[in-house]
Structures are given as structure tokens and as C-alpha cells.
Amino acid sequence: MFKEINILQTATAMARHAAERHSVIAENIANADTPGYKAKDLESFGEAFSRGVTLASTGEKQSPFRTETIAAKGAASPNGNTVSIEDQMWRSAGASRDHDTALTIYSKALTMLRSSLGGNR
Fold first, then answer.
1. Is residue 69 included in any domain, yes or no?
2. Domain of 109?
3. Coil, strand, or helix at residue 73?
4. Which residues are registered as beta bridge partners of 17?
5. Distances from the Cα of 77 to the Cα of 6, 36, 59, 88, 89, angstroms
6. pLDDT score of 17 more than 80
7. Predicted TM-score of the model (pTM)
8. Predicted confidence band of residue 1 (pLDDT cuts 50, 70, 90)
9. Which of 14, 77, 100, 117 is the most buried (most CB within 10 A)?
10. Which residues lie closer than 8 Å to 52 by C-beta, 6 or more apart?
């Protein structure tokens, strides 16, 4: 009956994307004073999803998500660094919100699956 439940795989991939985005943001913040460092971010989950990133590809050591250099808002610092702490905090909040959304989708899908099978536990 339930051969493939794609919503669970999609929610898992979305949560993994948010976690990897947090990692990239943490790297940017750690390099906020590194001369010449260019801030990075991951492609959006929508872009990765449309490229066909699947849960199977997330088992690799290399991330299946593309990393992009962020265009600096305003001028870079005198040492060539493009990290803006305020921008990174904003991106971190967005990644956290995306992770929470993925967990909610996963939880609700499991609840619906349990209800359809006749159990409310």
C-alpha cells in the first residue's frame, strides 16, 4: 500500500539542508576577521530539490548542495573580507526556521500516517 512516502524523504532532505546551511553560516562567522575571506551560502532548498537532490545522495561525505559566494551588501572591509555578522545572523534565523518547518512537516506526516493506519498513538 505505502511503497514510497516521498513527504518523509523530502522533509528529511529539507532538515539536512538547513543543518548544512547552519554549518556554512558558522564557517562564515568564524572567518569574519580573515583577510580576503568571501562569505558563502548554500543554494536554496527549492533549487536543490528541482535539481533532484535526493535522500540517497545525502549519505555521501561531500554535500549534495551547491555552495555559492554571497554578493557583499555594501563595501567589503578594508582587508577584503565580505562577511557581515548582521547578515549572517539573519541567514541563521532563516535556516533555523527552515529546520523547524521540516521537523513539523515530518511530525505531521507521521501523525497522518498513524491515523490512516487506525492508531492515534
1. yes
2. 6-116
3. coil
4. none
5. 45, 9, 38, 15, 18
6. yes
7. 0.80
8. very low
9. 14
10. none
Cα-Cα-Cα-Cα dihedral of 74, 78, 80, 83, to 10°?
-50
Evaluate whether residue 62 is within a structural domain: yes
Reduce the DSSP state of residue 62 to 3 states and report it. coil
Per-residue pLDDT at 121: 55
- Number of structural domains found in the chain: 1
Cross-strand partners of 42: 67
Cα–Cα distance for residue pair 114/94, rounded to 1 Å: 30
Beta strands in the chain (DSSP E): 40-42, 67-69
Residue 121 domain-assigned (yes or no): no
The C-alpha cell 536543490 sits at 48
pLDDT (tens digit per residue) in 23-82: 999 999 999 999 999 999 988 888 888 877 655 544 555 677 788 877 767 678 889 899
